[in-house]
Design brief:
The complex is a heterodimer of chains A (about 230) and B (about 475). Chain A is α/β, with parallel strands linked by helices and about 230 residues long. Chain A has eight helices and ten strands. Chain A is globular and about 45 Å long. The chains are: A alpha/beta (about 230), B mainly alpha (about 475). Chains A and B meet through helix 2 of A and helix 12, helix 16 and helix 21 of B.
């Protein structure tokens, strides 16, 4: 379980995150929504111990992320392009992460298991990652999350830069992870993508949890109305 | 002519976050250079004397040396290709390809300006070549620029032109090697201002034509794949972090030129040493040569990784990362040691001293460099050349070099007081050995320090 308690973070005196409590069980698919600057990325970075919170804590499987590296064995994340190594080719990057995470399978197996999402372009690409399109980079980042059989996967706005076909395939990929007992925490500005891939949705505004509801037509309508009013 | 590309290049330099530091570093370097003119004077003469021992003295032999040098320089420029120009924004806005090509060629030239300074430095500060006069400067600068533009021409030209060029160069080399035209005559012919100017004009015109054609193709979408010709960089070390390090060095301009600069120092510095040289000078040169790559590269251990720092610290244990770096640098130190063995044997220097310096580097220098690397919060731009590049310089090599230059004599003199100087040299080796034994402890301490710094580094590398 990922447990977040009294997590606070402010930048230049302005509060960016003030979460009283948030718990995510293994096997849950959680969609995080909110306007720009709501605190979604700050939340993800706190979970990944990339920023030092002013107060509170994050624990993964009982270990505080700030005190132990154990969470790295069960949690993978793709936040942005800084999670890619630009001077490697896609397959070399995937090979690196699979070896670093001591995966039981290789690149070939990974790409064939997710052939639909990886498409032939990743398999055949001889270009370095820095020369690829943003959409392809995102797909490589998402595939890298599968390294090492993680329990939790975090994706920050993965739908934003990929084409509609890939969006559909990503939704399928997320659902497949849930079937395999993994947790996926994904943020998006598109409610439809969240509705079709997650079973719980958390709305964050001004660093606080505003709604935390199960995904169903009523809750999605309620959220839709909320954004219209905003 | 609208000089927007040049203007933007200028702005990217003056508006970079490290510009202030770079200016200060540059001023410090100028002051240091001015202060050390007498030392440079004698060092250059000593270097020239040693070169003369291989090629012989006199104008003809010196020109032969230049021929070998410029041929190697040309070979390197043909082999190590420059990355493709990043001009997609400009190409979207304008069809004035000739203007962009010209401006690209000018900005590219900035990178080799420092070489001119070095080229001019040698004859000015050496009495040996007073007879060469101002004509020499014209020839040497002309050849340098000609080599540079020939490199550009080859990179952006079609395969057929590349093949024709290689055949032409091979034909010229054969004519010289098989003595069809005696080397002396060939050298005399080449080192005349008229011939050099013709070469220069041909290379400039050829490269302009190639770059323009290349950019035109980019506009109509006929993308041509350009890759570095050094081939696949994955070698058989099983550790993925080793493989990553090797790819980092081989595939990025800044790291690659760092390696070349390090290699250059190994080729030049040993010539300054003689059997009678002061011990402290020998120690310093041996230390810098056996750590030739560690200082320049190691101080940016995290800065290189700046673009994917978040990925690294969320997927790889910091301790594991530092350990792999430590082992990697030990490897490069051993390479430096092996290379330095040749001048040590030739000049009959003390091999024991060299071994001591290797141990000192492995035990003290590498942990010190890794520790200092955590202080560099500047992301190092991998696509920029390292020549005259002050990005991260203040927190990087200048600081570490100053530390090492201060520390080594301090320890040496400390050990010389109770013991003999010879014993003090071995004492340094013993200290290195102790450092080697304690390397796990050092790495543990540095990783815990780095764990505390990672939040700051993550933010800094982002901005």
């Amino acid at each position: 379980m990922i447990r977040i308690k009294n997590l606070q973070k402010s930048f230049g005196g302005k509060s960016a995150l003030n979460l009283e409590s948030l718990e995510i069980e293994q096997g849950e698919c959680v969609g995080i929504v909110g306007n720009n600057g709501a605190g979604k990325t700050t939340l993800f970075k706190s979970i990944l111990d990339l920023i030092k919170p002013d107060g509170g804590y994050v624990s993964v499987e009982g270990d505080l992320v700030s005190e132990s590296d154990n969470w790295q064995n069960c949690l993978n994340a793709f936040i942005d392009e800084s999670f890619l190594i630009e001077f490697l080719r896609p397959k070399e990057y995937l090979k690196f992460i699979l070896e670093a995470k001591k995966s039981s399978f290789g690149v070939k197996e990974l790409l064939s298991n997710y052939a639909e999402f990886s498409n032939s372009d990743i398999d055949e690409s001889t270009k370095y990652i820095r020369d690829l399109s943003t959409g392809t980079k995102v797909r490589i980042g998402v595939l890298s999350l599968l390294a090492g059989d993680p329990k939790y996967m975090i994706m920050d706005e993965p739908f934003a830069h990929i084409d509609p076909t890939s969006q559909v395939r990503l939704r399928k990929l997320i659902r497949k992870q849930k079937e395999q007992g993994r947790s996926v925490i994904v943020s998006s500005h598109n409610l439809q993508n969240i509705a079709e891939s997650c079973d719980r949705v958390v709305l964050i505004e001004e660093g606080k949890v505003k709604y935390d509801v199960a995904v169903n037509p009523e809750s999605m309508k309620e959220l839709d109305d909320y954004f219209k009013e905003e | 002519m609208n000089l927007f590309y040049l203007k933007h290049h200028y702005l990217s330099i003056v508006r970079s976050r490290s510009f202030g530091g770079e200016v200060i570093a540059f001023i410090i370097l100028i002051v240091l250079a001015k202060q050390s003119i007498p030392a440079i004077h004698s060092s250059v003469d000593s270097f020239v004397e040693r070169v003369s021992s291989f090629f012989g003295s006199g104008e003809a032999n010196f020109k032969l040396f230049l021929l070998v040098y410029f041929s190697s320089d040309l070979a390197i420029k043909l082999f190590f290709k420059r990355p493709s120009p990043k001009m997609k924004y400009y190409l979207l806005w304008t069809n004035n390809v000739s203007s962009i090509s010209g401006q690209y060629m000018i900005t590219s030239l900035f990178g080799i300006v420092p070489f001119f300074m070095v080229a001019c430095f040698l004859p000015i500060y050496s009495k040996t070549f007073e007879w060469l006069g101002s004509e020499y400067l014209l020839i040497i600068v002309g050849l340098w620029v000609s080599n540079f533009y020939t490199g550009l021409l080859f990179q952006y030209s079609t395969r057929k032109i590349q093949l024709a060029g290689i055949l032409l160069l091979a034909a010229i080399a054969s004519i010289v090697l098989f003595n069809i035209i005696p080397v002396v005559h060939f050298v005399d012919l080449l080192f005349t201002p008229t011939v050099v100017l013709i070469l220069l004009a041909l290379s400039v015109a050829g490269s302009f034509y190639s770059v323009r054609n290349y950019l035109k193709k980019r506009i109509v979408g006929q993308k041509k794949k350009f890759q570095f010709s050094i081939g696949r960089s994955w070698i058989n070390f099983r550790n993925p972090l080793f493989q990553l390090e090797w790819a980092l060095i081989a595939r990025n301009k800044r790291t690659r030129s760092n390696l070349l600069m390090g290699m250059l120092s190994i080729l030049i510095l040993p010539f300054l040493l003689e059997k009678e040289s002061p011990e402290i000078l020998m120690l310093l040169i041996m230390m810098f040569c056996t750590s030739f790559f560690i200082i320049q590269h190691g101080v940016y251990s995290l800065g290189w990784e700046g673009t994917y720092f978040d990925f690294l610290v969320t997927n790889v244990s910091i301790r594991e990362f530092l350990k792999s770096r430590y082992i990697f640098y030990v490897g490069t130190s051993i390479v430096g040691f092996v290379l330095f063995l040749i001048p040590t044997i030739v000049n009959k220097l003390d091999i024991g001293m060299l071994v001591s310096m290797l141990l000192y580097n492995v035990g003290i220098t590498i942990p010190l460099v890794l520790y200092r690397s955590a202080f560099n919060s500047t992301k190092i731009e991998l696509s920029e050349n390292s020549f005259m590049n002050y990005n991260g310089m203040l927190t990087g090599p200048i600081m570490v070099t100053s530390l090492l230059v201060t520390l080594l004599p301090f320890i040496f003199y400390g050990l010389s007081q109770p013991f003999l100087a010879d014993h003090a040299v071995y004492g340094l080796g013993a200290i290195g050995l102790i450092g080697l034994v304690l390397n796990s402890f050092f790495i543990r301490r540095i990783s815990s320090f780095l764990s505390r710094k990672k939040y700051h580094l993550s933010q800094s590398f982002k901005s």
